Structures
1.
Amino acid sequence: MDVLSTAGVAAGERLAFWREVSSKLWVPYELGCERELENDFEADVGVTEFGPVQAALMTSTRHTVHRTPKHIRQSDPETFKLVCVERGGGRVAQDGRCTEFGVGDLVLFDTSRPYQAEFQEHISVSRLLLLGFPRSFLPLPPRELRSLSATRIPGARGIGALTSQFMLQLARHLDELSPSDAARLTTLTLDVLIAALADALDAGNAVPPHSRRRALMARIHAFIRDNLGDARLTPDTIAAAHHISLRYLHKLFQQDGHTVAGWVRERRLEQCRRDLADPRLAASPINAIAARWGFTSPAHFSQAFRAAYGVPPRQYRAQCATVPTVRAH
């Protein structure tokens, strides 16, 4: 992930620097903030590209942006931007609509038409995930898509909530993605977006069945990862959270060559293995680590860990502790 930041830039030059960064990274637009806040302006962004999708995790103090017809004539990449808020919030206006958005909410806007956006006045710092992708990648009617610009898709309920969970988890792990991980996320991320937008339009039939299935699986996987530490996470609770039958949930996993319980167990074991190898957690009891990731029986955890990795958890931790640390010079 490439990171750009105002850190190290003189206070009086940060706005101009960020204006240039924004123009090159996204699209040209007017960028400004209140005069009394200019010397305190700070921003940074981490950028990952997977295929045609650009994911940017931006943290910034308050400012405003305004993309005008003149800017569009200067550069029009014909892309949509989707904002998902991790911290803070703001408002965006386009096509005669203005909406406020907060943590977890999704907002779509089209860079080919004028828009204005600003952060909330009472929040000093906001953190946003911005996804950019070609308009041509959305198999939805253009006229209906236009009706979604500057419309808030609530992140607190329904498909919007499940999509938001997926997006926020993506934001938290952007810096961990390898090139191969990023490549695999291209189709998956677009499928999730398509399903959320189609639901907002009530145009589910416009989405290909395979895209709906992949989007649903992505949301289910995100939900499971967010709840791995809950010992009450079962196929029943997973199915209920996604408003599908238990039978259909099992069918979805079987199509990928997995069982629901098996997939959950594998993710839990992965987290336990990571914690056991972490020297910062060397003082944490093995049973506590297992419980943290949803294993209620120490004996069952030890047996499952040995079956997965060939050694008991205590031996694995000891092996990791003997591996020499390579120091950077």
2.
Amino acid sequence: MNTVILAAGLFPTTEHALRHLRNADFIACCDGAANACVAAGFTPDVIVGDGDSIDEELRCRFVDRIVRIPEQETNDLTKTVNHCLRLGHKNLTLLGATGRREDHALANIALLMDYARLLPTPLGAPPRVRMVSDFGTFYPAVDQITLALEVGTEVSIFSFGATHFSARGLQYPLYDFTRLWQGTLNVATRPEVRIDARGPFCVYVALPD
């Protein structure tokens, strides 16, 4: 099942991002993201949050699918991810999680590492959670990730405490990064890229300009 979680950042505008909404079997909106979802012609299957950002007309229209979670220890994106996991969804694509406020974007990218632990990926299998924007895709990983990419695709790697990096199919050799920027701007040299490490890291795959 293709499950899309739509957050309340910038609504996707490119075909790369919008095709995930068009192909979704289940759309979960983070509170006020339901407004943009419906305005773009999509129908949410569930709306998760405290409900204070949803237009009144939509609040009445979708009253049967609003899940109110008033606690403030986690943000609406994490509440929605956890709710989807409770429903049994195992493959998640996050949209609208970047843009608008940079602090929210950074927090959501960091939260991907938590979601990767909740949805562990078998070795060699496609990642079960990803964050898609108009400009590329973030893939969280623990220990290993294998991605099918076009040769020449730009790839950046961000370590969240991982060590013992190695890779096949990248132009530049990897090492144990001590700063976030050190793994950026690599390039795929094969149609399959495999990155191995010990611990959590995040891979960003950029779209061509």
3.
Amino acid sequence: MLMTFLVAACATHDPEPVPVTPEPASTDSNSQPAEKIKSQPLRHLLGRSLKPMPDRELNVRTRCRFHDVAGGRGTMDLQVTKAEVKRFVAEVSIPKQGLCRFEMKNFHQTATLPNVVLTDDASGCVVRIWEQGKGVTVAFNACQSMCGGDAFSYLWPILVDTRNGRCS
């Protein structure tokens, strides 16, 4: 008899799958419908009536020099009229890393609104120019071929103050 129990204990069978059904919604009279989740504004935005910046044609003109606290130096000559780039030359020197140089002759304009976009098809380099408050930002993406050494890894966007034409 002991042998029968041991053999029976070793026998296995596949259990039948149990169908899973979703639980029905509660029909209690005390239950309340699910409340919608609303987006909550950030604390520093409470009470402020902020509106999106309108899309408008970019107009900026500057010929500036700049340097940063790490010793980097640069120059930029930029003219954008009615979202069309007329002149663009920028050079940024980063100590112990190299030099980045961008010239309009290497690019063609691929977008005007909301950002001005310059693209170099040969290298894949993209320069984006946009207005933000009282300033204009010139940012670089995938532009390693325009830089010597490891300079592109240290290249930051160039900011232009539209009130006085200075850049940093």
